[in-house]
Amino acid sequence: MGRVVVDVMPKPEILDPQGKAVAGALPRLGFGQFTSVRQGKRFELEVDGPVTQEVLDAAAEAAATVLSNPVIEDVVRVADSEADAAGTIASQGLA
After folding, report:
1. pTM confidence score
2. CA 44, 62, 47, 49 torsion: positive or negative?
3. Measured between alpha carbons, how far is 15 from 71 in angstroms, rounded to an integer?
4. Which H helix or E strand runs over 43?
5. Superfamily in which the 2-91 domain is placed by CATH
């Protein structure tokens, strides 16, 4: 079974009150190094079998038409979760 991850974020010109609230709380909790926060959405789409380019293309189309509101949101990533997880672990030095 494969899994596709889709990340959707508010467009830069759209206000993000949730992100602003988190940004305000971080310094009070000892995380002063972060200057801005934007909160988005993550979708995980499971498929029978491997994640192929056709599956990624279909996920991108679903993201653009169903999973996001193109007036206020951008689809920022559509990726195979297996490949994505390996890259994330390696980039964090956890592998």
Report:
1. 0.80
2. negative
3. 13
4. strand 41-47
5. Phosphoribosylformylglycinamidine synthase subunit PurS (3.30.1280.10)
